[in-house]
Structures are given as structure tokens and as C-alpha cells.
Write a structure and sequence with these properties.
The protein is of the alpha/beta class and 254 residues long. The chain has a single domain, classed as Rossmann fold (3-Layer(aba) Sandwich), CATH 3.40.50.300. The protein is built from ten helices and nine strands. It has a nine-stranded mixed beta sheet with strand order 1-4-5-3-6-2-7-8-9. Helix 2 packs across helix 3. The chain is globular, with a radius of gyration of 17 Å. The termini are far apart.
Length: 254
Amino acid sequence: MGQTSKHVTLDLDSLSAAGIVTPNSPRSFLADQFRLIKRPLLANVKGQGESGLKHRNLIMVTSSLAGEGKSFSSVNLAMSIAMELDNTVMLVDADVARPSVLRMLGLPPGPGLLDLLEGNTDMQSVLLKTNIDKLTILPSGTPHPKATELLASDAMRALLDDMAQRYPDRIIIFDSPPLLLTTEARVLATQMGQVLVVVQAEKTLQSDVQHALSTIKSCSHISLLLNKVRGASEGGYGYGYGYGYGTPSGKPTA
């Protein structure tokens, strides 16, 4: 207890070359799209969008299946929000079975979320402060044989309550497991203020998306992000501008 957070240095040039938005990257199509993506999410956090959202500063990024780009979207969304003048952001690797956030950022594995849930450490000891002033990272933590059970536990619910209330001025992005591969993502979703479901264009079946959405239909705010849209940028791929905003029943609208 009482330890200070570890400071890590992200190689911003390497991240930019890998297609990740960074503060020193030149203006790009991808950066502009994430500006559009984050704006309604931030409006809801500030109470300018839907009213009555619990934990409005907790945003879960997920997908129906693996390989749709949810982790890439989580990292870019966090980076984009970190460029805001009035917000700080914490990026949590909650995909404890297949953690990838630290690897994408070029960082070694270390203690984090699972260690917190086991009661082996405190938040300040596992948080990673970065050379991006407004961005901190919470790793998935030490591999555990009951990792999925820990993520769905009462300890996780208590931690989320504490995070939402202790850091009301901080946006907390959770890179979660896919909805159709595990059950813990569905439990996590019930504790989130907002859920962003990444859908890979021309790959993910509509039936899979509908099935995934049905598992989190109790969530008050669900948005859809279409990834790898052909022709969205010159000669390449992009993100869909549009969202499907969730109704109180959790059914996305057009």
C-alpha cells in the first residue's frame, strides 16, 4: 500500500507507424474518424447525451467474435480521448484470457487487474503512467487459472463501482473479451455506462451480431462500430462513421 504508479515510455513513432493514433502523429483519416467516434461517447459522460446512465464514464469495447479489431479500437479510442483538453483516460486490458493491449503498445506484461481482484495489491501499485500525460494503463495482470471467474466476481463489481466514483473526471476504457466466446464480457457489460461493439465489415455475420447484442440487451446504451470498411479511405480500409445507438431495451437503432 502507498506505492506510486510505475512510469513507462511508449515509443510513439513506432505506434504511429503501426497505425495507432498518437499525439505527435500528423492529421490522418483514422485520427479524424476516432474524433467522430469519441464525441458522442464523451457527450454521454458529460450528461449531454442520454440521461440516467450509471457509470457513464465506464466504456466497454467488445465484439461478437475474436479478430474483429476490438483491441485496436480500444487503444485508438483511448489515445484519441487522451488528446482532449478536459479529459484523462485509463485503458484497462480486461480480456484476461487473451490480453493484447500491452503487446500492442510495446510493453512487457506485469501485474494488474487480476492481481487487484485477488487482493494482492492496490491500484496505484499496478497502474502504468505513460509519457502521454493524460493516459494511464491497467494491465490484465498475472495469469490466473480462474481468470474468467475473477472477472465475473463480486470483487470485480465492487472495483468497477470504486473506479467509476473515485475517478469521475476520468474516462475508463475496457478492452473486454468477445461476447460470444466467454460469459464474463456479458457480466461486465451490465456494469458499464456505455458499450461499444466492434463489427468487422464483410466478415462478421449479421446473425452473430444479433446474437451478441441479445446477450447484453439489458444495457442502456449500446453503440456499433463498423471496422475495416472498404473504400473508406484512399486505397485502404477505415471505420464506419455511423453508430447504432442503443435504446433502453438495448436494441440498436439505425
